[in-house]
């Protein structure tokens, strides 16, 4: 495993080996069955190219009512529990004395991207956010604490884990593109990104 520090983001390249990635996908299968991926729309009514769902007490949703955390999936059921294998990664890397209450699951198919944004729907920005990449490679762009300015990009590969804490917690970031078909982890291709958060 190699470690990269970029603008306060702690990037653990190759944190999960191939068998651990396969185990994580197996643990996520029942989660995705219970809480299917859906396509959120922004407050302005545009469909996002990324499909999403969540696990944990709270899940992140976006629709005409805006962005927020909700205790139920849009189809009305409680979000499934965050799998233990996922929580074990948080325990190992987050250095936080509580567990996350949300695991947001983003799925990137061919052509999906996520524009530069800040994550600020959580109640307390002093908790870190932990991201786990699975499947196809993604070009991750890191900006600044305010909009604009120079950015730096890094490819995230399957098995990489990123920890965003401290001053980096409010840094602008996004996914420019994925290399669709670069990984064989997901049978239908694409990329799953898990972000573990303390929302409340
Ligand atoms: C920096 N996801 O879900 S993960 C997101 O790959 C999101 O799906 C991207 O941005 C993805 O909000 C990037 C890296 C990441 C996640 C959350 C962050 C970086 C972050 C929260 C605060 C600062
Ligand atoms: Fe984000």
TrEMBL record:
This protein's name: Alpha-ketoglutarate-dependent dioxygenase AlkB
Keywords noted in UniProt: Dioxygenase, Iron, Metal-binding, Oxidoreductase
Organismal lineage: Bacteria, Pseudomonadati, Pseudomonadota, Alphaproteobacteria, Rhodobacterales
Gene Ontology molecular-function annotations: dioxygenase activity
Key word Metal-binding present: yes
Organism of provenance: Ruegeria sediminis
Domain Fe2OG dioxygenase intervals: 99-200
Cofactor dependence: Fe(2+)
SUPFAM superfamilies per record: Clavaminate synthase-like
PROSITE patterns: FE2OG_OXY (PS51471)
PANTHER family in alphabetical order: ALKYLATED DNA REPAIR PROTEIN ALKB-RELATED, NUCLEIC ACID DIOXYGENASE ALKBH1
